[in-house]
Structure formats: C-alpha cells, structure tokens
Amino acid sequence: MITLARRRAALCALGALTTVLAGCSSGDTTGNGHPGRPAGPAATASPPAPPTLAPGPSGLTPVFSNGSRTQGRTVALTFDADMTVNQGTRAAAGERFDHPELVATLRRLKVPATFFMTGRWAEEYPAQAKAIGKDPLFEVANHSYSHHAFTSDCYGLPTVPPERMRADMERAYDAFRKAGVERPLPYFRFPGGCYDQRALRALAPGGVTAVQWDVVSGDAFATDADAVARQVVDGVRPGSVVVMHCTRSAAPTTERALRTIIPKLRERGFRFVRVSEQIRSTRVAVARGQGASDGRDFTGTP
Length: 302
Ligand SMILES: [Zn+2]
Prior knowledge:
- Helix 3 (about 100-110) runs parallel beside helix 9.
- The protein has helices at about 15-25, 90, 100-110, 120-125, 125-135, 160-180, 195-205, 225-235, 255-265, 275-285, and strands at about 65, 75-80, 115, 140, 185-190, 210, 215, 240-245, 270-275.
- By secondary structure, it is of the alpha/beta class.
- It comes from Streptomyces alboniger.
C-alpha cells in the first residue's frame, strides 16, 4: 500500500568539512559485492559504479535526502512503484499498480527520473520493469520486496523483523534481475520513509545508500492534480528530491500533475536529474568546500 507520508526527512546533519570529506568514498569502490553489481573480472569492463555515500558512525547505512543547494538548479523526481507482497490478488482482479502513461509522459517530455521499485512490482510487471531499467533516461532503485515497514510503527504497515530486513532488500534485487533490469542502483528507499538506527544497521552490509526526499508531492490518493502540482512547484529548491508514485490505482492524478510540474519548473530554470547525479554533484560540492552537506543523516528520525 501507499502511505500518506507527509513528514519531511530529517535535515541533514551538518558535519565538519573534514568529517564529511573523510566520509566521502570514491563511489567506484563502495558497494562492492552488491548483488546489483557485477563482481570479479567482468566488473572492469562495466560502466563506473554509481556514486554512493560512505557509511556513517559504526558503519550505519547513510541516508541522503537532498542534493547540494549550491550546484545549480537541479531537481530529482523520484517515483515509488509500490506493490505490497499481499496485493497479488487485487492485481489479479484488475487493480493496476503500474502507470504506463506516467512513464510515457516522462519519456515524451525527456525528463530523467529515478524509480524506487518494490520487488513485488517487478514480478507483476516484468516487461515494464525491464523497459524502465533499459531506458537511459531512468534508473531503477530498491523500495524493498514486500513494502512492509522497517520500523515497528509506520502507517499501519506490517513490520519486517530486523533479521529479515536485508533479505527483503536482496529479494527485491533478485526480482529485478529476474525481470531483466540490468543495473539496479545501490539506493534503497524505506517503505513509508520509516527508518531507525536498527534498520540502518540491518542494511549496512548491503552497501546501499538510503534515499529519502525533501519535497513531498502529496500525490498518494490525491484527487486534485493542480494541488499536487502546486505543492511540488512551491516546495522545490535547488538540489531537491521529490517523492511521487508510479502506481495508477493509488496515485491517479500524478501523470496529470506532471504535465504542469515539468514545464513550470523548467520555466524557473530547473534541470531534471536522476538521484545518482544529485548525489554525485553533492559530493563534488563537499569536496570543493562549497558549503554543502553531503546529505548524510544518521539520527534515525525521518
Ligand atoms: Zn512506497
């Protein structure tokens, strides 16, 4: 299910520059051995690994919620492709958890985007998952397999026990591979945006960067596309990450809202980027000492 997450992710902890620099890994070396990546000699012939953030204190999974505010007017639209593990019967009965028109609109308007896909969604819509993964405009990241919660209190979602958290994430990567998604990114979005230190610890061996957002579109169950568009356009700042949904039954106005959001943000000088670019440019800003935080947060309080 889609949640009505309205909370803004915790503001980035502004570490001392030296700390931040020490925390910035090369991006080509983090996440080694991740199931989404090729391993061994073949890896040398593969494209460079996407940028990630270095782990936090005690190796906690880093959390990214927005990019640099000083590296130009970029904005990353992100789309959660939600499907909960027990929604198969609803899909079989005709409910649509996909949204091909939304994907077509992004393509028509040439808007790069990042899809946070559940493994269950990729199982239900393997051709679409593969096509999104193949399209150079887009990137596919992980939104768990089950869309169950990674904390004990998250909008009524059933909870994944801590010892199953990493397996749930890895099961989604398995589902992506089976669907033919070639290079899913080592980015993870917690269902409902709910996480705590226990969850950050549980996922740490997976080498992922958790990705939250700083702009809530409010598109879940929305009936007024103009209101969604307004909320996004008014909320976006340089470096923003916007959370939206690619699930027609539960976010039916999103595609219409996009047809307003995209030209309005372009009019205001914004350039659309994928999350990987947002993370990369943030790291560049930090390395140059341009007053940016690297966006990491370890408080466990989204
Ligand atoms: Zn979700």
